Amino acid sequence: MQMPESPYSFPRLYASQHRQQLPDLQFYLALAGQTGSDLLELGCGTGRLSLPLVAHGMRVTGVDLDPHMLAFARQEAAALPEEQRSLLRLVQMDVCRLQLPDRYDLVLFPYHSIGHIGPGTPLQQLAEGCARHLRVGGRCVLSLLQPDDELCRPDGSELRHLERFCDPDGHDIDCYESTRYSAATRRLRFDWFYDLADDREMLHISNELFLHTGEEVQQACMAAGLQLERSYGDFDGSPYTPDSPELLQIYRRFH
Question: What sequence ranges are listed for the domain Methyltransferase (predicted)?
Fold first, then answer.
């Protein structure tokens, strides 16, 4: 079996799998309607969220560290109408070292991407960067993964068929997933195996997320001058409970 690859080395595959996964789009659009239309998206990747946001008239600055993902996002953005392209700016930058000239109404860190940020100093740097780039009255939304017991088995979950999706050429791709959780490191490892419907060996991609608690994130944000305004358990606006599939924390900068 080949060594696992990074998902960010395959932006076309990533985009094909995730481009239709937009349960959060209407949630963020509604929040922008309450807060303002100048948005900063952290971890924008291939533009899964940024491109639909500008299609709805939002002004978006997307930040990502990975050059392959950003190159794909720029390629996708080139196909947008000019009035939408003019609303989008893509920047390669570490989200823990944000240094942008503008301030924003809304800062988003969606799709559980905060799990790529380590605990302690990196988390605090992230919170301070979010606060620094918000206008007074602006909001910051952080999306935290809330895995169930099956995903967090220390002995590893059984390999299961996750989904079938089509690549841009219309070929069906089957994705299989297994996970393993380490209580010692608080990291959840995902292993995905892609059947690319040709004679090649299955493509093995792996990724890890650090599982921050809501309390840890809140402490970092409060130290950065952000106040927790409300928490949701899903994108339908339902209250957060320990059994919720999501933890969506909305912070506000009041000063």
Answer: 40-138
- Pairwise CA distance, residues 253 & 237, whole Å: 21
Angle of helix 214-223 relative to helix 121-132, nearest 10 degrees?
50
Q: Each residue of 162-208: pLDDT tens digit?
A: 999 998 888 899 999 999 999 999 999 999 999 987 666 789 999 99
- The CB density around residue 53, as the number of other CB atoms within 10 Å, is 26
CB neighbours of 2 closer than 8 A, spacing ≥ 6? 201, 204
DSSP 9: G
Q: Indicate whether 2 pLDDT > 80.
A: no
CA 161, 240, 180: angle at the middle one, nearest 5? 35
Q: If pLDDT is split at 50, 70 and 90, which confidence band does 22 have?
A: confident
- What's the CA gap between 212 and 215, in Å, rounded? 8
Q: 7 CB contacts (<8 Å, ≥6 apart)?
A: 13, 14, 192, 205, 207
H helical segments located in the chain: 11-18, 25-35, 50-55, 67-77, 82-85, 121-132, 214-223
Which string of DSSP letters, residue by residue, matches 93-114?
A: --GGG---S--EEEEEE-TTGG
**CATH of region 8-145+213-252:** 3.40.50.150
Where is 229: in which H helix or E strand? strand 227-232
Q: Which uninterrupted H or E stretch holds 92?
A: strand 88-92
How far are the Cα atoms of 30, 43, 220, 248, 251 from residue 226, in angstroms, in the given order? 21, 20, 9, 15, 6
- Say if pTM beats, i.e. exceeds, 0.70: yes
Q: How far is CA 84 from the centre of its chain?
A: 22
Q: Cα(107)–Cα(96) distance, rounded to whole angstroms?
A: 13
